[in-house]
Design goal:
Helix content of chain A: 40-55%
CATH superfamily of the largest domain in chain B: P-loop containing nucleotide triphosphate hydrolases
Mean pLDDT of chain A: 80
Number of strands of chain A: 6
Shape of chain B: elongated
Structural class of chain B: alpha/beta
Strand content of chain A: 15-25%
CATH architecture of the largest domain in chain B: 3-Layer(aba) Sandwich
Radius of gyration of chain B: 30 Å
Number of helices of chain B: 16
CATH topology of chain A: Rossmann fold
Radius of gyration of chain A: 14 Å
Largest interface: A-B, 16 and 10 residues
Helix content of chain B: 25-40%
Distance between the termini of chain B: 69 Å
Low-confidence stretches of chain A: 1-25
Strand order of the largest sheet of chain B: 5-4-6-7-3-8-9-10-11
CATH topology of the largest domain in chain B: Rossmann fold
Number of helices of chain A: 6
Structural class of chain A: alpha/beta
CATH superfamily of chain A: Response regulator
CATH class of chain A: Alpha Beta
Oligomer: heterodimer
Order of helices and strands of chain A: EHEHEHEHEHEH
Strand content of chain B: 25-35%
Strand order of the largest sheet of chain A: 1-3-2-4-5-6
Number of domains of chain A: 1
Largest sheet of chain A: 6 strands, mixed
Low-confidence stretches of chain B: 489-497
Mean pLDDT of chain B: 84
Chain lengths: 145, 497
């Protein structure tokens, strides 16, 4: 089991809305799915950690299943589909059924990936490389009540 | 007084690049507290120059820093050692990727490298600079920074603020850039205070200063060499920068008849071309003037491009010119120049040393075709003109030996390389046919400062020395290349002569 979990305190002054939530109750959890360990670390470090979310990572379908089986309270998922086979779409369906909003990250600008992602319930498709600022802004918007 | 004070201030502002020839090109060195760009392809010598720049500061006890983004510190140290550069006192900030980078498969694609790596790189540079407070910083290379920014605009902004940060910390900065077509570096050229371009081609390595804010510099390109002692730059000769007063007196050959032909001898500081076919005695004639100067304790130098020193010495000794003794007394240097070994700028540097350090008063190039090989196919006239202009400005007499290809017959030509206009004096030697015998004759074709005799005279080179005979007044066919003695009262005025 190699689920990476990071719990860090939010830095003061970042994201006013999130701040009140974070100080009053448990921070929002974001699930990051990526087969590349370094990508996963960077997602956690550059984005979730800095913005003060609780990051949960999964590097394989098995790990993803494990996370989804347990109690998790995930508010948003980021799914990098690179390295996964067709079965990743069934997990996307699962996320949709569980009402967990998710963004698909695609290695290239591919119409097929875009269509399939949206068909399986993705909120949107992002193409790598991502820009940290834009990504955190997008995540914040999606998590707004 | 005011001028003196300002020149002292100017000197204080300058710091040496660590390469003497380069300082000369840059009017004394880099201006302190500025940022300079060194451009050039792979293997062009950028890093070597940077290491010279750092060691020069370290030797003076300044804190100096090498920021390496591509080459690891150990490798830099190894290479420096190979070139005899002592890196003691040079601090390193090694930001090159280590082997783990590859083996741990730490590659990523979720964010661009610009997003991920810039911050740690910037942070470690800032920390190190603030802690060490270096007076000289060498960054190798800025091209790596380009990959840490997303676009040209970001790079320009980042690079400018990076250079400003370093300079504000009282450092003089040298940065390198590869300037490839994939990553053009015009932006860096704009923001640097000076640009040095290094290039290496089939005709050797060259360096040129193409920008130098707040200072004069000597236009390039200038030759340089990367050798056992690192980088050595050979500035191109410029007569404006040199010059010393001299008295335009006559230099005699010591052969009364020859001096008579020249109406007293050759004027000091002039260029004399001695032209003629192979084996006629051109070199010998030149050495006569050197022997005379040696007798007065003055120094001369001969550059042999074709002949071996031993053969030259032996040949002169055989006709009673005491070259051996002249060499021993230090009144003559004989230098063998291997073809294709030196560039013309390197050769000029050798000549300058003889002139400026040993006070050579005659410089003889033997011969022009060898010199042509030496400058590796470049414009012969341009290079020779620069050299002779320099020698003239220094009051040095130049003797240029020119071998004409045809031994006899053909059109009468002073040289086959179109350089006779550079010469103030032209002496020509010819073979002469009389009564079935081949004899030699010498004549003066041109003498700028005075009148001269316009007859040919017979020249004899024997073991007792050089003998010049009485004027040959009954010659015909001089311009055919093979003069012949006309019969007395014969067809001296024949139309074909």
């Amino acid at each position: 089991m190699a689920v990476i979990e990071l719990h860090r305190n939010r830095r003061p002054g970042v994201g006013a809305r999130g701040l009140s939530r974070a100080t009053t109750e448990e921070r929002l959890a974001i699930l990051a799915v990526d087969t590349n360990r370094r990508n996963l670390e960077l997602l956690m470090m550059e984005l979730l950690d800095r913005a003060g979310y609780r990051g949960i990572g999964a590097m394989s379908l098995e790990e993803l299943d494990q996370v989804l089986q347990g109690p998790h309270g995930i508010a948003l998922a980021l799914v990098d589909v690179a390295g996964f086979d067709q079965r990743i779409w069934t997990r996307c369906d699962l996320l949709r059924r569980r009402e967990i909003p998710f963004l698909v990250i695609s290695p290239r600008q591919l119409a097929a990936v875009q269509e399939t992602s949206l068909a399986h319930g993705a909120q949107g498709v992002l193409v790598k490389p991502l820009a940290t600022k834009e990504l955190s802004a997008l995540v914040r918007t999606l998590l707004e009540p | 007084m005011g001028n003196e004070a300002s020149s002292v201030r100017a000197a204080e502002k300058r710091i040496s690049t660590g390469v003497a020839g380069l300082d000369e090109i840059m009017s004394g060195g880099l201006v302190r507290g500025r940022a300079y760009l060194v451009r050039g392809g792979p293997g062009s010598g950028k890093t070597t120059l940077g290491l010279h720049f750092l060691t020069c500061g370290a030797a003076a006890g300044e804190p100096v820093l090498c920021i390496s983004l591509a080459e690891p510190e150990a490798q830099l140290r190894d290479n420096a050692q190979g070139m005899g550069i002592d890196l003691t006192g040079v601090s390193f900030l090694d930001l090159s990727p280590d082997a783990n980078f590859f083996s741990q498969a730490q590659s990523y694609d979720i964010f661009s490298p610009a997003e991920v790596e810039r911050e740690p790189v910037t942070r470690s540079i800032m920390e190190r600079v603030e802690q060490l407070k270096p007076r000289r910083i060498f960054v190798d290379s800025m091209t790596q920074f380009r990959y840490l920014t997303q676009d040209a605009f970001q790079f320009r902004k980042q690079a400018l603020s990076f250079l400003r940060f370093l300079v504000e910390h009282q450092a003089t900065v040298l940065v390198t850039s590869e300037g490839t077509t994939e990553a053009p570096d015009e932006d860096l050229r704009f923001m640097s205070d000076g640009v040095l371009e290094l290039e290496s081609g089939p005709d050797g390595r060259r360096v040129a200063v193409t920008k130098f804010r707040g200072s004069d510099f000597r236009n390039g390109p200038h030759a340089f060499r990367l050798g056992e002692t690192g980088m050595e730059v050979f500035p191109k000769l410029s007569s404006e920068e040199h010059g010393r007063p001299f008295h335009p007196e006559m230099i005699r050959s010591g052969v009364p008849e020859l001096d008579e032909m020249l109406h007293g001898g050759m004027t000091r500081g002039m260029v004399t071309l001695i032209s003629g076919p192979s084996g006629v005695g051109k070199t010998t004639l030149g050495v006569l003037f050197m022997r005379e100067l040696a007798g007065r304790g003055e120094h001369s130098v001969v550059y042999l491009f074709e002949e071996w020193i031993e053969s030259f010495v032996h040949r002169c000794e055989a006709i009673s010119i005491p070259v051996h003794a002249m060499i021993e007394r230090g009144t003559l240097s004989v230098v063998q120049v291997e073809p294709l070994r030196y560039s013309s700028d390197e050769f000029n540097r050798m000549v300058r040393r003889e002139v400026e350090e040993r006070n050579a008063r005659i410089v003889m190039l033997d011969s022009i075709s060898g010199y042509r090989l030496c400058i590796r196919g470049q414009e012969l006239v341009t290079h020779l003109a620069a050299l002779t202009r320099y020698l003239k400005s220094m009051g040095v007499t130049a003797l240029i030996i020119n071998e004409t290809e045809s031994i006899a017959g053909g059109e009468f030509r002073v040289t086959e390389v179109g350089i006779s206009y550079l010469a103030d004096n032209v002496l020509f030697l010819r073979y002469l046919e009389t009564a079935g015998q081949l004899r030699k004759a010498v004549g003066v074709l041109k003498k700028r400062m005075s009148d001269f005799e316009n007859n040919l005279r017979e020249l004899e080179i024997t073991r007792y020395g050089v003998k010049v005979g009485r004027p040959l007044t009954n010659l015909r066919g001089i311009l055919t290349g093979t003069p012949q003695l006309a019969d007395h009262g014969g067809d001296r005025a024949s139309p074909e002569s």
